[in-house]
Every structure is written in C-alpha cells, then in structure tokens.
Design brief:
By secondary structure, the protein is α/β, with parallel strands linked by helices. It has one domain (3-183): 2-enoyl-CoA Hydratase, Chain A, domain 1 (Alpha-Beta Complex), CATH 3.90.226. It is 50% helix and 17% strand. The longest helix has 18 residues, at 216-233. Keywords: Isomerase, Lyase, Peroxisome.
Length: 251
C-alpha cells in the first residue's frame, strides 16, 4: 500500500509509503492522497490531518519516469486526479494540516509546505525545489505562497537555485515551524496535532477559513500562471535534457 491511513484522538495521519521510489508521487499516489484529503475533509470525526513519510524520504516529488512518459508516450494514461487534483484538495482543505518532514522533500515534497498550517522537520531532513535544474516552472502556487511565507529573497533562492535547504535554514526562513531530532519528530507533531484536535472543530475551521480566505484568489491566479509556464517549458530542450540525464543515471 503506497499510502497508509491511521486515526487517533481525532487526528488522521497519512503516511506516504512508496519506499521503492522514495515516496515520489506517481499518478496512483496522487490519486490516493487526493482521495484521502477529501475524505478527511468530509469526516466529522477528523479534526486535524497529519502528513508524513516513511523511510529516509518525506517525498521525492513527482516521479520523473512518469513525467517523461507524459511527454513522450502517446499511450500514457493520467490518473483520476493527478498533480492538479492533489493541489486542488490541498488548497480547499478546510481543517488544520500539519506536515512532519521526516526526510528529504523534493518538488511537491517541499512546495506542499506552502499549504501547511504547521510544519515540523527532522534535523536530518533537507528540502529542494528543483525546477530550474529540470528546466520547468514552479508549481503548487509556490511562486505566491513561498514569498508570503518566507519573504521574496528567500523564496527567490529556494525556487531559482535548485539547491538543498537544510532543516535549520528552513526554520530560520520560516519555511517550517519547528525542527526536531528524528526520533522526536512524529511525537512532537502528534502532540501539537492533538492539542488542536481537542478544540471545537467548528472553531478550528472558522479560524482557518478566515486566515486563508484572502489568499484564495491569489493562489488560483498563481497556479494559472505556473501551469501556463509549465506547459510551455515541459518537453522543451532544457527539460528533455534533464529528464534524459535522469533516466540515463537510473539505467
């Protein structure tokens, strides 16, 4: 099973569990995570959602082999929701969302933090937005959410450099809220999740709604800009070369 789901004290934990691919999102995992987010949103017994990963990776981002197949294989069959469906579900999620970054997060494994209400990160974890190294554009409204979250210059470095960001640097930027030793990560994230889950759900949702309402139109506009740039660059010379290098390295 590529996604495990557990409930405890009104906290639902989603654990990315595609170990053989370092929890990279293929179409099946995008679909499963989207369905799980929507189910949690609709479940009155769930007050808080906690997202984490297994092994040494939080998520290695989009599966690059599938990304190349989207470009080169005329018979490629996209999933029911795919990447866009997952980002829709994140943008619309009405309850507190907590991320516990247990290992490295690449691409959507980093940009998902723009939608987190609280983010915890292990001291050994690292983050990377590899868009320029792949010859593509930002994603998941990160071109809007990251400047809002960490400031324009920090966001420019994160989105333009394709360099790794360590846990302490992420904390100093404000990309994550707390940094924990690896063994303490999930207990700390769960402890805070249970504090929130002990509060009335209607109040939690009202707080989140009032905080996120001013961002809705800007997030949608950023996604439209990003999607247009991504479509323009996907399959272009820089992107094709990067994907070919990746697949050659794997073989």
């Amino acid at each position: 099973m590529t996604l495990t789901i557990t409930d405890d004290n009104r906290v639902r934990t989603l654990t990315l569990n595609r170990l053989e691919a370092l929890n990279a999102f293929d179409e099946a995992l995008y679909d499963a995570t989207t369905d799980a987010l929507r189910a949690a949103a609709d479940d009155a017994e769930v007050s808080v959602l906690l997202l984490t990963g297994t092994g040494r990776s939080f998520s290695a981002g989009t599966d690059l082999a599938e990304m190349q197949a989207m470009v080169t294989d005329p018979d490629f069959t996209p999933g029911k929701h795919g990447f866009i469906g997952l980002v829709d579900a994140l943008a619309e999620f009405p309850k507190p969302l907590i991320c516990a970054v247990n290992g490295f997060g690449i691409g959507i494994g980093a940009t998902i933090l723009g939608f987190a209400d609280l983010a915890f990160m292990a001291t050994t974890a690292r983050l990377k937005c590899p868009f320029t190294s792949l010859g593509v554009a930002p994603e998941a409204a990160s071109s809007y959410l990251l400047p809002q979250l960490i400031g324009r210059q920090n966001a420019a470095w994160v989105l333009m450099s394709s360099e790794w960001i360590g846990a302490q640097e992420a904390r100093e930027m404000g990309l994550v809220w707390k940094v924990c030793e690896p063994d303490d990560l999930l207990p700390e994230a769960r402890r805070h999740a249970e504090v929130l889950a002990s509060r009335p759900l209607s109040s939690l949702m009202a707080v989140k709604r009032t905080m996120t309402a001013p961002l809705v139109a800007e997030v949608a506009a950023a996604r439209n800009r990003e999607n247009a740039c991504f479509a323009e660059l996907m399959g272009g010379a820089a992107n094709a070369s990067a994907l070919a290098d990746f697949n050659q390295a794997k073989s």
